[in-house]
Amino acid sequence: MTSPRVVVVGAGQGGLETAAALRGRGFSGRITLVGDECVLPYQRPPLSKGFLTGATGATDPADLELRPASFFATQGIDLVPGDRAERIDRECRVLHLESGAALPYDHLVLATGARPRPLPVPGAGLSGVLALRGLRDAHTLRRELSGPARHLVVVGAGFIGLELAATARTLGHEVTVVEAQSRALARALTPEMSAWLTDEHRRQGVRLLLSREVAALHGDPSGQVEIMELDGGERIPAELVVVGIGVLPHTELAAEADLVVGDGIVVDERLRTSDPAIHAVGDCARFPRPGARGHTRIESVQNASDQARCVAADICGEGAPYTAVPWFWSEQYAVRLQIAGLTAGHDEVVLAGDPGEARFSVFCFQAGRLVGVESVNRPADHGIARRLLAGGTDLSPEEVGAPGFDLKQYQRAPAPAPAPAPVTAPRERPVHVAHA
Hints:
Radius of gyration: 23 Å
Number of domains: 3
CATH superfamily of the largest domain: FAD/NAD(P)-binding domain
CATH architecture of the largest domain: 3-Layer(bba) Sandwich
Number of strands: 27
Strand content: 25-35%
Helix content: 10-25%
Number of helices: 11
Strand order of the largest sheet: 22-23-26-25-24-27
Largest sheet: 6 strands, mixed
Shape: globular
CATH class of the largest domain: Alpha Beta
């Protein structure tokens, strides 16, 4: 009997972690990792931060490598760089590459990631209009930001957009952020944290325009962007434009193979697609979340890594449903923002700490149950929150709102005897502030 063969499409975080986790579990079959970039798999988070500023440990592409070249040789992982998956033959279980190579598989893992959503306005193709997806884009952006101060306009106040804005301000550029939503990071953060982060960017000199949309981009005779036109006709200088308005998952390969897709490749609780021989992980995977209705798709390093380990276990016959608690982080100026859990649908928030000192956490509850914690420069809160959310907790809004509340002390304290819950009338969504 031949050894099982695993082919992984996508050499980003999720793809590499799948291959590494398989070997870590003792998988002895052949593993092939296919990437469409001609470089070793690398970290992407530094591309919007340290790589652009030249920070120590993030200036050279080699600094970003997730594993050195020797890893692939010693682990017996066949890395195929600079080639693109073109077609899946599900009946024969063969992946066809753009180069003409054909890779037979027993298990196929799709870690195809996502691509930046294009800006759908006239002038989007002008020189100086950029997006940040990979290392090549980061090289271009670093070159553009390394010169004299310029007017940079960032379209989109999501994580990438705000990180780029912070980086550009640190480098001395004038920065305007244009966001169509009424607040920054509207889909990811509570209004309280969103407002605080918006104020921080404005304190740093960023002009942040909310509820505004780009109507067109205008260039000079050479085709270089120089003006951004907003809805309503306002024109602002734009010597450099970076578009960060979200991403579109790469689902084309799966769709052409007649797998179920819909804002991602749809998978079950073990991350299997509609074909049980094919899994999907990371930014491209749309999966069921425990306790939630429907499927969700999460774009984070943690999610890609945890899903990769889940798939490796499933391929090795030791699988279990994917239940990892999501967590995220972002670094902007001297702010380290960390998020544990998903806070969509919360109906009550409690602030603990001191926003004025940039050290606080926002605890989010739904029907009295903790569902997520957002922390600024309080890494202990973040670490404890992840453990509480993973193991279950009866932490209440009243406890967090008590003067002097400390999550570390709460974790160490013995659990109190349960008390009957009082019956109260429905309330407006309250906000409590407790200074630690």
